[in-house]
Design a protein that fits this description.
There is one protein chain. This protein is an alpha/beta fold. It has helices at residues 27-44, 60-64, 77-87, 123-133, 164-173, 192-206, 214-225; strands spanning 24-25, 48-52, 69-74, 93-95, 108-114, 134-145, 178-186, 229-230, 246-247, 257-265. The longest helix has 18 residues, at 27-44. It has a single domain (15-186, 227-269, 277-281), classed as Vaccinia Virus protein VP39 (Rossmann fold). The protein has 7 helices and 10 strands.
Length: 282
């Protein structure tokens, strides 16, 4: 694998806000994790895949089953060490700054960034880098928590969250010619328990009582969600129920979904990927 010298910038260590093997998670948290990589797998078949901000690498092995090749990278050394302790060289891992990716142009067919765009001081620089690294018919797949969700809680290390229209503008300015946007995990609450938890979340957010780290939030979640389950070092099929991806209007913010997916295509490809809304059939 040929690389170029990366540029470095001073950023945070993201270990405290990253899902790690053995950390306890709610059923929905596990479902979101599985959902990201199942969705990515629909695009990854026989492709050269790069995951930016891969964290502890929970999805890399899952993608490696279908992709031509998979590379994972993160800025935090400790997270890469956790990933390496599991994969033991089976998946290449690199330390890099997402805004200065150390690879040659047109090295990849699919680039992923999940729940990390909002940590970047120069999101435009990241998009420009993906544009450089992707092959002519390449695809960028992103997911992010929806800032327009009424119960949205920002991460303590976040720089900027993007609405759907802002994501659209970011991708268009970065040279992506065909865009798709999807919502997942509806915000509507139906059961009494969901309504109580929703009220508590809103109150905690307004009073600034939500813990800043995942470990602190784990204790918070145990009080209101009950049983939590430990995360395994690698995503597995069937680890949670799959919810559908629902196409949404790219010109308008949405309050109906907790998670937003954005897909940027560099060109119309004759080789169409399976539409991710097929998740609804599983």
């Amino acid at each position: 694998m040929q690389t170029e010298s990366p540029k470095t910038v001073l950023v945070h260590d993201f270990t405290a806000v990253t899902e790690l093997p053995g950390s306890n998670a709610t059923h929905e948290q596990v479902a979101r994790l599985y959902h990201r990589y199942y969705t990515a797998s629909r695009y990854a078949a026989n492709k050269r895949v790069l995951e930016v901000a891969c964290g502890a690498g929970l999805g890399l092995g899952y993608l490696a089953r279908v992709a031509k090749s998979v590379v994972g990278g993160d800025y935090t050394t400790h997270l890469l060490q956790v990933a390496q302790s599991h994969y033991r060289g089976q998946v290449p891992l690199c330390r890099f700054d997402a805004q200065h990716l150390p690879f040659r142009s047109k090295s990849y067919d699919l680039i992923l960034i999940f729940e990390a765009l909002y940590y970047l001081a120069q999101a435009e620089g990241f998009i420009a880098e993906t544009r450089r690294l992707l092959a002519d018919d390449g695809i960028l797949l992103m997911s992010t928590v929806n800032k327009d969700w009424s119960e949205f809680i920002p991460s303590p290390f976040s720089v900027r969250y993007f609405s759907v229209p802002a994501l659209r503008d970011l991708l268009i300015q970065g040279g992506f010619t065909r865009l798709e946007f999807f919502g997942a995990f509806p915000t509507a609450v139906t059961t009494t328990k969901e309504k109580i938890v929703s009220l508590v979340r809103r109150a905690a957010t307004s009073l600034n009582l939500v813990p800043k780290t995942l470990a602190g939030r784990e204790r918070f979640k145990r009080l209101f969600y009950g049983h939590l389950q430990p995360l395994k070092p690698e995503v597995e099929d069937g680890m949670a129920n799959l919810l559908p991806l629902v196409p949404i209007d790219e010109h308008l913010p949405t309050t109906q979904y907790k998670i937003i997916y954005a897909v940027g295509h560099l060109a119309h490809s004759a080789r169409m990927v399976p539409h991710p809304s097929q998740i609804a059939s599983f």
